[in-house]
Amino acid sequence: MVADEGSSPPHPKPVPSKELSARVLSALVMVAAALLTAYLGGWPFALFWLAAGIAIVVEWTDMTGIEPRRLVQVILGVGLTALTLLFLLDAGLWLSLAVSIALLAAAAFVASSPHKRAWTVSSFIYAAPVVLVPPLVRAHPDLGILGLLWMFAVVWATDIAAYFTGRTFGGPKLCPPISPKKTWSGFIGGVVAATLCGLLVAWIGQRYGATLPLTFAGIAALSIVSSIASQVGDLGESALKRYCQVKDSSHLIPGHGGVMDRLDGFWAVCVIVALALLTLDPTV
After folding, report:
1. Deepest of 30, 166, 178, 248, by most Cβ within 10 A of its Cβ?
2. Which residue has the higher pLDDT, 24 or 74?
């Protein structure tokens, strides 16, 4: 998630040292877990993102008040688990799609109303890219761990740079009705930083004999698009929380809120990467 930033109030209230320590420690643990499982690949990496996807489904259905909640969550969790297992077993796209649709239909059927059925379907659609795209990138012969590092770099650089440039320069607000602290200066700073970091990852990878299937101009363009998508994803999740009248998607991660709060920008980049893969390689 791209952190809120801005110039008001002029002297922001300092974050209590205990809360700051929790935020830093949680961030270090999450980064370490993401990088370690990315290095290992295979089952550990796929299960890591499956856990994230299940957490997203739980948070989404809790926020939107779906009933019967636990039953819907169990069915959707089984659906995401099936997606992961079928991917790891290389079962093929059509079987995975058929199983997903069947379990999604079952979850929607037990939901208490048409409105809740729409929220049920959207929760699964939101979680599925987070569950599938990172393992798909890790296993892709032309992307592998370098592709993952590029994704991480773009999202993290967007997040950090948007926060600090927004607080430093302030200026016009990006989208006050949804996120009153975000500024255009933060938005631009996030895009610039993400582009530079995306290129840096590609350049370092090339120095060590690993390349991405794009020119540096293509990587820069994709980094720009992905950074913009990351910030739009953050605004989208903020809009959902405003609609549901909650501050955080959950309190699962100390100092950070929920998994959706942390992965809204990464989710958007997963969607961009999935579209790019389908464009470049329709057999994916």
Report:
1. 166
2. 74
279: Cβ–Cβ under 8 A, 6 or more apart, which residues?
A: none
pLDDT for 10 = 47
CB atoms within 10 A of CB 216: 13
CB 262, CB 271: distance < 8 Å: no
Query: Rounded to whole angstroms, how far apart are CA atoms 173 and 166?
Result: 10
Enter the tokens of residue 133.
């795209």
Report which of 65, 170, 75 is spatially closest to residue 112, judged by C-alpha positions.
65
Length, in residues, of the chain:
284
CB 179 within 8 A of CB 235: yes
What is the DSSP code (8-state) at residue 3? Answer: P
Q: Where is 82: in which H helix or E strand?
A: helix 69-88
